[in-house]
């Protein structure tokens, strides 16, 4: 693997990092340790091609070349649109109450470590009890920095403990929560996406009657 | 348990930077690849009188038609095939069917009729198909029939077999959205005349935003950019601090504040051709705008469409969401971001 040096003309450079490829991972780690350490299961694929600059006259803008990058599982957050359905529909739940309730859901299933998950209530509609939540896709385990160690060619590497568990923990804790203030309740997960932009449109809301 | 928790929904984000003047820019082809578009949202700063022109463009989008309880064998009618499927581009999609629960059908502009069926429906229909690649444990099957193929000509062997399957073995009936380019209603008349149908126009809504703080649009990270645009469209507050209890969402590295931004959106069955026209009109507007101006177009696909980008299969249970955002600048440069499920095929 050769990193690009100087201007690249009509070349296609493809870098494929796979966690199981020891030799590539070892050599690439020297250049980009932040991408490799602790990112099990992530397969970033970069494909960069640039063309020679085109000058078509003083009035036309310069072409800046064509760049294409494909990111896989690289979103730092996941977003959920959820609705709280209560047995007693007259119950009022404020945004602060909802955040506290979500934290308690995480605590009841995953303990204090789960409750430490940083969940943001981005938007909340008190009328419909619908909330937009944000959760980190990956977080550092509070159990310690050395979650896992690998031994390659006699060297030991300590991962930073990053893992894609934030969404799964939040979703599962909401799903399994059945009571709010001793009354039956249920969380309906309406949309889930790694992009907040995706939650601004839902074709299932299309009404044509 | 730790191994299961580490598996979350897989997703792809394709980031392209180029110029419209570059011969190899792929904006047009990418817009064409997402066949079934549900919503388009436009952000246009300091547009003044152009907002009314923008709204008129969205109001000129093609009409689409809702057919209630369409028996699917009606799609094999000879007159309909001749007027709509063999000529121009027909876009048809089952409506109010959920991709993970119900049987879904799509009629593609290339003449492909795509079924996404559960196990019982697939075995009853009796046609050649394959298990869903996205989730092999959910017992979903995909059947694709090329209506423009020689064997599918009316009276042909494949045609008769499909017709028999839909009329006697699996009598699928569902609400159906359909549109045609360039023929419109005239091309669909052979089908509409036999069904309960209604014509619809995309629903357009517009509102103004004031004092919008935006990051450095040309250079910010793709996920930060999409988060910022999503926060604008979703009316999500970004005026938080890291110590706030409810939300810590902030606008990373704010560059400037715009006093007025127009947000316009349209919902319905939107054709790629109309979206291409919209992009061209916005480019014309940007040529007359200030050098630090920009325009953002976000397009959402249908969640329950059985096809994804191009002819790809919908990846539902592992992050199936199709959308793209095109951020354009006055100097003909653009940033294009496409979101798709992570399948084993090439990304869009």
UniProtKB/TrEMBL annotation, chain A:
SUPFAM superfamilies noted in UniProt: Rnp2-like
InterPro entries: Pop8-like_dom, Rnp2-like_sf
Presence of the UniProt keyword tRNA processing in the record: yes
GO MF assignments: ribonuclease P RNA binding
Segments traversing the membrane: none
Keyword Kinase: no
Pfam family, one: Pop8
GO terms for biological process, alphabetical: tRNA 5'-leader removal
Keywords associated with the record: tRNA processing
Ribonucleases P/MRP subunit Pop8-like domain ranges (all copies): 77-146
Cellular component GO terms held in the UniProt record: multimeric ribonuclease P complex; nucleolus
Protein name per its UniProtKB record: Ribonucleases P/MRP subunit Pop8-like domain-containing protein
Organism: Gambusia affinis (Western mosquitofish)
């Amino acid at each position: 693997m050769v990193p690009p040096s100087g201007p690249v003309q009509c070349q296609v450079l493809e870098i494929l990092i796979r966690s199981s490829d020891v030799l590539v991972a070892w050599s690439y780690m020297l250049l980009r340790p932040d991408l490799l350490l602790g990112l099990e299961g992530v397969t970033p694929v970069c494909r960069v091609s640039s063309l020679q600059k085109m000058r078509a006259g003083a009035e036309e803008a310069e072409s800046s070349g064509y760049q294409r990058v494909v990111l896989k599982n690289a979103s730092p957050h996941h977003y959920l649109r959820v609705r709280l359905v209560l047995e007693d529909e007259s119950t009022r739940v404020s945004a602060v109450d909802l955040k506290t309730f979500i934290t308690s859901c995480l605590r009841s299933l995953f303990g204090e470590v789960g409750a430490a998950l940083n969940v943001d209530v981005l938007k909340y509609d008190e009328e419909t009890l619908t909330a937009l939540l944000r959760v980190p896709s990956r977080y550092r385990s509070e159990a310690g920095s050395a979650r896992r160690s690998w031994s390659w060619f006699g060297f030991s590497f300590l991962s930073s403990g990053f893992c894609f568990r934030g969404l799964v923990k939040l979703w599962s804790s909401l799903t399994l929560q059945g009571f709010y203030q001793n009354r039956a309740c249920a969380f309906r997960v309406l949309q889930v996406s790694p992009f907040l932009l995706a939650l601004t449109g839902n074709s299932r809301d299309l009404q044509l009657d | 348990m730790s191994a299961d928790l580490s598996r979350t929904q897989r997703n792809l984000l394709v980031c392209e930077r180029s110029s419209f003047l570059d011969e190899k820019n792929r904006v047009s082809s990418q817009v064409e690849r997402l066949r079934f578009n549900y919503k388009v949202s436009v952000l246009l700063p300091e547009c003044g009188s152009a907002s009314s022109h923008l709204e008129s463009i969205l109001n000129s989008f093609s009409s689409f038609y809702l057919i209630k309880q369409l028996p699917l064998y009606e799609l094999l009618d000879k007159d309909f095939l001749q007027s709509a499927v063999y000529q121009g581009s027909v876009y048809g999609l089952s409506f109010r069917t959920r991709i993970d629960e119900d049987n879904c059908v799509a009629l593609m502009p290339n003449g492909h009729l795509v079924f996404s069926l559960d196990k019982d429906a697939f075995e009853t229909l009796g046609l050649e198909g394959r298990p869903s690649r996205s989730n092999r444990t959910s017992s979903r099957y995909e059947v694709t029939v090329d209506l423009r193929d020689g064997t599918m000509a009316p009276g042909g062997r494949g045609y008769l077999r499909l017709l028999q399957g839909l009329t006697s073995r699996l009598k699928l009936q569902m609400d159906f959205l359909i549109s045609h380019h360039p023929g419109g209603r005239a091309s669909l008349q052979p089908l509409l005349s036999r069904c309960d149908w209604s014509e619809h126009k995309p629903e357009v809504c517009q509102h103004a935003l004031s004092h919008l703080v935006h990051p450095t649009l040309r250079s910010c990270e793709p996920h930060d950019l999409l988060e910022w645009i999503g926060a604008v469209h979703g009316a999500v507050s970004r005026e938080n601090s890291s110590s706030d209890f409810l939300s810590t969402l902030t606008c990373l590295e704010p560059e400037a504040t715009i006093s007025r931004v127009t947000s316009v959106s349209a919902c319905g069955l939107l054709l790629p051709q109309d979206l291409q026209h919209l992009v061209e009109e916005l480019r014309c507007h940007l040529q007359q705008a200030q050098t630090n101006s920009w325009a953002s177009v976000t397009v959402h696909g249908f969640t329950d469409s059985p096809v994804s980008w191009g002819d790809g299969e919908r990846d539902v249970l592992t992050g199936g969401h199709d959308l793209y955002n095109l951020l354009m600048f006055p100097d003909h440069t653009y940033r294009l971001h496409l979101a798709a499920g992570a399948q084993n095929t090439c990304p869009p």
